[in-house]
Amino acid sequence: MNPSQKSQGEQIVADEGAWLDYRDQMTYGDYLQLDALLRAQQPRSDNHNEMLFIIQHQTSELWMKLMLHELHGAMRHIHNDVLPDAFKMLARVSRILEQLVHAWDVLATMTPPEYSAIRPYLGGSSGFQSWQYRCVEFAMGNKNAAMLKPHAHRADLHEKVMQAYEQPSLYDEALQLLARRGLKLPATHLNRDWREPYVASSEVEAAWLCVYRNPEQHWDLYQLGEELTDLEDAFRLWRFRHVTTVERVIGFKRGTGGTGGVSYLRRMLDVVLFPEIWSLRTNL
Question: What is the full DSSP assignment across 27-93?
Fold first, then answer.
């Protein structure tokens, strides 16, 4: 081929006027800080499968960073009665959880012998210690003081987790909104210690029942209830997929973080985040 002639691919690039010289421009890699991001995968063994394990958990942490960003935004908007924006953010969190559910499909390609080969290199590290996941749990209302302790050795992280622990949860903000709209809620649930685990209330269920029995009158609150339902539905699926993947890969061995592994994760399946949103359906 004559050097002056362009291949079809080169001609397409030329026709489109694509920029090819980036000496004085910010690039894709610059904007996303890809050099630092792609250097963060440092396997401790020479086992081929450790890269999968690292990337699975690093990408999960990135998604959780976005989850926290969206949850905090949604809670702020609910607090300020700006519900359309809150709905958008809650829907986005539900879609993020779908991504995390499907991520377990990739990790499930790791067989028990493959995991056993890399497990000695993990030491005591465990997803149980994820400070971002703990902040997600606290924001969703699953408060547990014991879960502060794994972060006590890092003052900066302990402060972040403590802040999430002490603040009202997403559901607390939703109930405050219902009260501002004139629905009757018990003082025990409106003026409580936000650090304590949430306890279901028949009076709170009655308030939600009023919303669900009169959706035209309380349309945005009804939408809020369904956004919360979608969110917990997605969160339950994520937890369930976590349990089945762990059982598939390690069986009933104890977790690297010291828990019973599958037995601990199964107990977490019983935690209900927004109880009255679910119980009201029986009484509609």
Answer: -HHHHHTHHHHHT----SSS-TTHHHHHHHHHHHHHHHHHHHHHHHHHHHHHHTT-HHHHHHHHHHH
Identify the burial level of 121 via C-beta atoms within 10 angstroms of its C-beta, where 0-12 means exposed, 13-18 middle and 19 or more buried. Answer: middle
CB 47 within 8 A of CB 117: yes
> Of the candidates 131, 173, 171, which has an alpha carbon nearest to the alpha carbon of residue 155?
131
Position 124, amino acid? G
How many residues make up the chain in this entry?
A: 284
CA distances to 56, 81, 182, 280, 282 from 221, in Å: 37, 11, 12, 14, 19
Show pLDDT as tens, one digit a residue, over the chain (284 residues). 555 667 888 888 888 788 888 888 999 999 999 999 999 999 999 999 999 999 999 999 999 999 999 999 999 999 999 999 999 999 999 999 999 999 999 999 999 999 999 999 998 888 889 999 999 999 999 999 998 999 999 999 999 999 999 999 999 999 999 999 999 999 999 999 999 999 999 999 999 999 999 999 999 999 999 999 999 999 999 999 888 888 888 787 766 666 656 777 788 778 899 999 999 999 99
